[in-house]
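Quick board copy: two proteins, each given as sequence then tokens.
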Amino acid sequence: MTQSLISVAIVLVAWALLAVPLDRLRITAPITVVLAGVAIGFTTRNTIAENLNTEIALHAAEIILALLLFIDASDVRGGLLGPDPRSVMRILFIALPVSLGIAVLLGLWLLPGASWAVLLVIACVVVPIDFAPAASIVRDARIPARVRNALNVESGYNDGVVSPILIFALALAAQSTHANTPMEALSTAVPSALKAMLVGSVVGFALAFTTNLAERHNLMTDQSKRIALVAAPVLSYAGAITIGGNGFIAAFVCGFVCNYVREPEPFRRELELLDDIGFLLTVLMWFVFGSAAVFVLYGSFSWRTILYCLLALTIVRIAPVLVAMVRSKFSYRDRLLIAWLGPRGTTSIVFGLLAFNRLNGDAAELALAAMVFVVLGSVVLHGATATIGINRSDPS
């Protein structure tokens, strides 16, 4: 543990000292920390699975996911669904569900032996996109603003849309639960989600409203506003768990409501501390990913898993997005760019770790392998071709 902390700290300092030149080379902090995780993974290869499959690791992943969901939901700009809500709704509520369905069907073909519930868990791991490790792509001025806005909003909300589906699938697939049928799983998941939505809404509204009120009466400092915002996802997550709700949904809804109720201009400044915390947690997850990659690559895996992940990165995303955006105001080049620029990152890593902890036996190892291969494949595929796609985009 101490060795891991030292490695992360050294790599982070090295990246911070060279952040500007490394950014020009598109070498981000997550990428550099992965190397440290790989190095540690080689020295602790025999104990990686034991370290990942613990209650402490599970709760840490859950809390990190709750914070990231809150950050994603609260950081969307230009309205709750961005400046073009119709296009975003096409991506989130047409393309995303279709992608999950196609991923499950591909799993039935390429991953025989896995139940459909396990395949749905894996689909939830490999489908969501995440621009956290590739933020420079959506900041690239060569990408039309309309495309960048759509990708930013999708990246902010898709993990919140997928997380309830993941929890439902895990409740059905995990051998440690008593949910033997979809209806039994739904009977547990739906009340949990409703409680979470209630808690998230109440906490988000109360915090945003009281912060607005206190700010008008000059009762808060800039620092205290940032601290209050950091407490929001923790309070909503813990509050939902206390009454049997889903902490992830509560944190996501809390961020969504805060983004709507809180006065926008000061809210952007208050997010800075939470963004920094999210950045550090993201880096931590990439370190864990490096170690998990060593474990998977040194274990037994099938070519079928690799092909499945390759298809998840291409057909599973591209086809549904292109179909969902038919007759939209986007040009064909824009649609193709949105469909192609779908990097996988922190969301897939956290979902994969949760699946590895909740599932058992071969199902757990399959979920972890799918996470590793889809993220590695995304780093190679999107890293190598993103610039080509951007250069060929329609600048108008």
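And the next:
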Amino acid sequence: MEKFEEMVVNFGKFSPEERIQGMKKATDECICPDCPTYNDCARKAGEGLFCAHGSSFICITKENTCICKQCPVWKEYGQTNEHFCSNGSEAAQRWVEGVRAKWTT
């Protein structure tokens, strides 16, 4: 099992307190607010940690340079995708990739 899948499986075994602490740690390490794509609307809305929470609801409509691969959260959790603010969370992008693979084979 690769790192991201292992993290998802293990996260489900954590107590609610451990889940909260894990999300707090990831939020503290998140570099979304430093990204050139991140904007004032996202800042005011408190958006971030897009790799876990999913894409921006309404604020981010244009992609600039992506820095996801520089994020400690991206590295720690074995993520492989990027542009989470516009394309959705790691889990969502992997699901789409899996569906796309089934339809094209």
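Board note added afterward: The longest helix spans residues 90-104.
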